[in-house]
Amino acid sequence: MAMRLALKGLGNRVMATIPACCWTIIDGAWPNHALKIPLMHTAFETAAIAASGIRAALDVKGEEDVTVMAWAGDGGTFDIGLQALSGAAERNENIIYVTYDNEAYMNTGIQRSSATPYGAWTTTTPVKHPESRPKKNIMEIMAAHRIPYAATATIAFPDDFVRKFRKAKDIVGMRFFHILSPCPPGWKIPSDMSVKVARMAVETKVFPLYEIEDGERVTINYWPEGRPVRDYLMMQGRFKHLTDEQIEHIQQFVDHQWKRLVHLHELTHGSLPEEAQATLTSR
Hints:
- The protein is α/β, with parallel strands linked by helices.
- The protein has one domain (about 1-280): Rossmann fold.
- It is built from twelve helices and eight strands.
- The chain has helices at about 1-10, 20-25, 45-60, 75-80, 80-90, 140-145, 160-170, 185, 195-205, 230-235, 245-270, 275-280; strands at about 15-20, 40, 65-75, 95-100, 150-155, 175-180, 210-215, 215-220.
- The protein has an eight-stranded mixed beta sheet, sandwiched between helices.
- The longest helix has 26 residues, at about 245-270.
- The chain starts with a helix and ends with a helix.
- The model has no long low-confidence stretch (mean pLDDT about 95).
């Protein structure tokens, strides 16, 4: 669903690189693949640099109207591919980099990644020893490179999703997308709950929808009233073992992160919309 929305926003003049990840399986084996755009499968850590090479070749050919997109999971972005991604961002390569984040190495057996949130079960963070560290903040890492554009998105808000990709298409330089991508087996949810879980992540402020331009201008795109984070956690089997104390710890962390984000939005825009006030007090 995320790929469909991305290509709806970008159109048909797109070339993509996909490293080792769940999407290599979705796309299918050589010589055929499921997308209607040219695609290069790459090694786990090379999505960004392969996309940069394609961009350079297209520029030599004068095909500047083609958008080049790297599409990688959280393992190939937060962990294994971070060095190549950072290099591409530092050079401000003219590509779009998308990480569809299902918060673990789902394709190889649900092992933890640095995108795995605190308290989550994975096969390498079992119930008796769940993830003990907070999730890596990939958006702030990318913003620190002062790239032209970075944004979050989710399939539960398709209009916001497509709008952002259309906006990114017209920006020159490095553009980065962080997409929350529920994984039914890894998150222990029925597949027909994917959109509902993604929406609840936004409504509880676990996964805010926002943009960062030029590394510092922050715009919150959706102001949720604020459901308790418990509502999101208890929809998923991977969090069923959490105690009330652990859930409250997560709630406090989410509240703190949201207040920081709201402050950055206010610094950018000079004021807050009316709907922002309720988000600072509701639980």
